[in-house]
């Protein structure tokens, strides 16, 4: 096996391990359903609906999946539970594809002549700082020059935690004192990044939802100030969600998509939960692509989301 094949095998094994609790919870129940009866009928579909909803796929997405399955089963009056397994797998993959989840194999970036700017949003406790650190590691590993910006100035711990990650990964960080203007930090970060010839800049922001208007104004101000340095910034607004919170992740996505134009999702802590179905539901309900998934505590355990590998792993035995 070549080096590239070995790397893909290790990545697949990590994904399988990271989704193990979801597979045990959701798909063991599906396995019993698929062997319970031979022919797909209303009772089977009702049970399938309940399994998907209680696995945090979400009500609206579940109803969409069930409707699609019903339409396909109608075309084949003799469809059985063996076929249902295949149909469910295909429809989940189709939903993920429709929501612009493109399969990306590496941490490459478009060459625009300017730093590629990622603004990271999300509530405190979802793994936002850890996600930034792990992304910085992956981009550096891919040969990119990375600069971090500690624009979450409302918590001293946020600045300290990001500094620890910057030291661990070996990348520069721009920071000010707690209580400083977040937009000022973002401006300084991009100015420094341009001076250093950086390829990618990752900006942390405050994770507060208690006042949505203030949050919206703050994020808008940060974007406007960054554009004075890099007109295209931010190239990406990444919302980090904790996969283990299930339905709460939907509410966080709802609030942040109202406050700013989220362009990509990172869903963390999937290894510690049976609620991996939230990946399917959140992506579908908000029509925002899942770009990264966190499947472990290791620095390598932040993977680019690949819909085909994700579905294959979920349905593998």
Description of the structure:
It is a single chain. The protein is an alpha/beta fold and 317 residues long. The protein has an eight-stranded mixed β-sheet with strand order 3-2-4-1-5-6-7-8, sandwiched between helices. Helix 4 packs across helix 5. The chain is elongated. The N terminus is likely disordered.
Itemize the secondary structure elements and their pairings:
Elements: H1 3-18, H2 20-36, H3 42-54, H4 59-75, H5 81-98, E1 116-121, H6 128-141, E2 146-150, H7 156-169, E3 173-174, H8 182-196, E4 200-204, H9 212-226, E5 236-242, H10 247-259, E6 264-268, H11 278-286, E7 290-294, E8 302-304, H12 307-315
Parallel strand pairs: 1-4, 1-5, 2-3, 2-4, 5-6, 6-7
Antiparallel strand pairs: 7-8
Summary, kept brief:
The chain is of the alpha/beta class and 317 residues long.
């Amino acid at each position: 096996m070549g080096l590239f094949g070995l790397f893909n095998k290790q990545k697949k094994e990590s994904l399988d391990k990271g989704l193990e609790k979801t597979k045990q919870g959701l798909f063991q129940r599906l396995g019993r359903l698929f062997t319970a009866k031979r022919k797909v009928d209303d009772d089977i579909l009702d049970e399938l609906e309940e399994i998907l909803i209680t696995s945090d796929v979400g009500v609206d997405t579940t109803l969409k999946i069930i409707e699609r399955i019903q339409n396909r089963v109608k075309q084949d009056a003799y469809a059985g539970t063996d076929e249902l397994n295949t149909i469910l797998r295909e429809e989940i993959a189709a939903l993920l594809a429709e929501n612009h989840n493109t399969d990306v194999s590496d941490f490459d970036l478009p060459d625009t002549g300017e730093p590629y700017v990622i603004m990271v949003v999300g509530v405190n406790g979802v793994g936002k700082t850890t996600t930034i650190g792990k992304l910085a590691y992956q981009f550096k590993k891919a040969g990119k020059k990375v600069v971090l910006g500690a624009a979450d100035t409302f918590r001293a711990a946020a600045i300290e935690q990001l500094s620890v990650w910057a030291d661990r990964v070996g990348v520069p960080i721009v920071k000010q004192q707690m209580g400083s203007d977040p937009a000022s930090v973002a401006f300084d970060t991009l100015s420094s990044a341009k001076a250093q010839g950086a390829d990618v800049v990752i900006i942390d922001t405050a994770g507060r939802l208690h006042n949505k208007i203030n949050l919206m104004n703050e994020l808008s101000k940060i974007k406007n100030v960054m554009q004075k340095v890099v007109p295209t910034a931010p190239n990406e607004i990444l919302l980090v969600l904790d996969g283990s919170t299930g339905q709460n992740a939907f509410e966080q996505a709802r609030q942040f998509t109202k406050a700013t134009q989220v362009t990509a999702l990172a869903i963390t802590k999937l290894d510690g939960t049976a609620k991996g179905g939230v990946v399917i539901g959140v992506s579908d309900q908000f029509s925002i692509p899942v770009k990264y998934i966190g499947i472990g505590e290791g620095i390598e355990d932040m993977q680019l989301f690949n819909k085909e590998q994700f579905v294959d792993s979920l349905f593998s035995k």
